[in-house]
Description:
The protein is an all-alpha fold. Helices cover 66% and strands 0% of the residues.
Amino acid sequence: MIRGGEVYMEMCERWASDGTLITVEQNLRLWAMLQQAGRMACDAVELLFKNAGTSVARKGSRMERYLRDAQMYRVHPSSLFEKFWAPVGRARLGLPIRHFNF
């Protein structure tokens, strides 16, 4: 996530300094990078939840909230990395990007 923010700031600084536009491919690649970070964070939360014991599963516990938040992220359309493979590839090859079907 931190590197994603740094990459975005670098792209914005280039735009501000010399007008270099952020391409569709760069935007999609950054989005894919952030999706991977989100996926890894969700995996970490799930691993902690599985190994923490049954007391953490009670409603309202901190770990239960973390797990619920991670699961909400996983089903959010912007986190569905499988939908990004084709558009990133098309952008890389210079082909037109079709509408995303979320």
